[in-house]
């Protein structure tokens, strides 16, 4: 069974480069990103893990923890981390799961047989503090992930979890957001005190509520 948005994020215990973790316990009250890598010492993954490390402060200010998973063992992970730090000019200090039995990859449907029967695709799961899957992005093994987009999705998910708004195409923090169609026009002024503009009856903008 594949996971879908709104599903419970499966819990698991695993060995990582930062010690053994219980996923739900490790996540605590934070948002989380769980993302997969086909194997250690792969070039695209090396750049992705390096970029994650470089964005440490960006994830921290969003109160978002990052957890990577690869099907190789810990010894391999530790050697790979040295290469990542050297080639990407970073310090990888977030956990990388040693998923040698493919338990996590299977729980999170990261192996797509039509692509490979053994290597994971590049899955990204966005998980809220209540341990629900809130978004999923999946790339083929050949395409590196866009971390600007990953951060943008986190910003949107956090905003829309706290306020009754939606974010439009290419939205960035600080830009206007959309009033959902379910909000009646006569309720708009009281619910969106910063003002609003109507493009069409179903397309209404308001300034970002928390800015």
From TrEMBL:
Keywords: Antioxidant, Oxidoreductase, Peroxidase, Redox-active center. Pfam families: 1-cysPrx_C (PF10417), AhpC-TSA (PF00578). Residues 3-159 form the Thioredoxin domain. Gene3D superfamilies: Antioxidant, Horf6, Chain A, domain2, Glutaredoxin. SUPFAM superfamilies: Thioredoxin-like (SSF52833). It comes from the Bacteria. InterPro entries: AhpC/TSA (IPR000866), Peroxiredoxin_AhpC-typ (IPR024706), Peroxiredoxin_C (IPR019479), PRX_1cys (IPR045020), Thioredoxin-like_sf (IPR036249), Thioredoxin_domain (IPR013766). NCBIfam families: PRK13189.1. Belongs to the peroxiredoxin family. AhpC/Prx1 subfamily. Belongs to the peroxiredoxin family. Prx6 subfamily. This is Alkyl hydroperoxide reductase subunit AhpC. It comes from Arenibacter algicola.
């Amino acid at each position: 069974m594949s996971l879908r948005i709104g599903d419970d994020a499966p819990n698991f215990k695993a060995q990582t480069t930062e010690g053994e973790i219980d996923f739900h316990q490790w996540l605590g009250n934070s948002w989380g990103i769980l993302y997969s890598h086909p194997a250690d010492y792969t070039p695209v993954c090396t750049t992705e893990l390096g970029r994650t490390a470089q964005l440490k402060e960006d994830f921290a200010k969003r109160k978002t923890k990052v957890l990577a998973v690869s099907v190789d063992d810990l010894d391999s992970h530790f050697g790979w981390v040295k290469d990542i730090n050297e080639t990407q000019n970073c310090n990888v200090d977030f956990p990388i799961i040693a998923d040698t039995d493919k338990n996590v990859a299977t729980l999170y449907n990261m192996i797509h047989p039509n692509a490979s029967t053994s290597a994971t695709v590049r899955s990204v799961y966005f998980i809220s503090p209540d341990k629900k899957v809130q978004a999923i992005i999946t790339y083929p093994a050949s395409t590196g992930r866009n971390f600007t987009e990953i951060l943008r999705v986190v910003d949107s998910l956090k905003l829309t979890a706290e306020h009754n708004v939606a974010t439009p195409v290419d939205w960035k923090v600080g830009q206007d957001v959309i009033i959902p169609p379910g909000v009646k026009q006569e309720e708009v002024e009281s619910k969106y005190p910063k003002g609003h503009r109507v493009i069409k009856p179903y397309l209404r903008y308001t300034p970002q509520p928390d800015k």
